[in-house]
Please model this.
Amino acid sequence: MRCSYCGGNIFPNSCARLGNEYYHYGCAIALATKIKRKYEEFLLRRRNVIGVGVGFRHRTGRLVFDEICVCVNVVRKEPVEHLRSADIIPEFLEVACTDVNEVGYIVPIGYYLRRRHRPAFGGVSIGHYRCECAGTLGGLIKIGEKDYVISNNHVMALENKALQGDPILQPGPLDGGTYPRDVIGRLEKFVKIKFGYGDNLVDAALALPLEGGVIGRIYGLGVPNGVIRPTLGMNVVKCGRSTGITEGIITEIDSTVIVRYRSGDARFIDQIKIERGYGRFSLPGDSGSLILSRDRKIIGLLFAGSRDVDVTYANVFENVVRELESR
Amino acid sequence: MSVEDRLSKAMRVKRKYESYLLSINGVVGVGVGGTKESPRIVVNVKEINEDVKRIPRKLEGVDVEIKVVGEVTAF
Model:
């Protein structure tokens, strides 16, 4: 067989289809890219279209990796008869096939997670009604008979200053959450932080969510299944209000660290340190995120880090559960 | 020494010298880092100063690594 673009030899097991012809993989992508650039403006002016690219073809809901097409991403698919003829996406652009996919509205993830969500889920903005801050709703944790929202003491309990029953807002006040409109639950309990002398294990708090207000899924990561102990070199992932979904590596265990809070310095023992290696694993506002392993088991609770360097600290989740259960 | 022995030795030595290391001006944290095969004691510092420079490179045969992390704050 010959490549319809460059004329060179191609083999059935290492070629790509574009429209009705076969090409070298690279030739198919180069040709599709050329066609896509030529028609980009024309496509983006059509109703519902929010993005255009070169990619794999979807057929009956599955990706076909040896078929290249011009991908047209739309907010929603509409029946052809509802569209003006000028808004219909042609099936072919020269020799390339188009593939129309419904993707909804695309928003920066950071902002998406800072919005109000009902039901709310892990990874979104949360905060005590009287703090001018925002942290992250970690997820739902079963303690005793009930499911509780988990986050940090400094996010939901004002560094020990809050009272049981205080309203918790989603989004947090920094992201525009107001009382009483955005109440998602009530503070249930927290582990007191010892400032100055004394060792801390966790910065954790629980809130009782309103009926049906929160679901156990974490944005982009699904529902966690179990808890495991952290080990050195383990790959981890989290979803937080400020930096969204990021992956990192546990670079330190049994870590002792002095953390600066608004109320003063506090010493934490048996912590884990996480680094991403490039960019940032976390930033302020990600506090309260659950740290998960690759197979979605809970490892830790994110609570601190450095503003200057890619360094994040998290409580060991076994300690979090033990300390909260004993309160 | 097996991998587990090396890791538990690093943890034991780290605990022994922890309060000494944390009392040094500029030190904000101490942990066990490196890799499972060759664990080390990691001393996290706000910035490099004269006191930090005097921290030994090895403690009871375990490597000591100095890392500048700035100030660690609640996120």
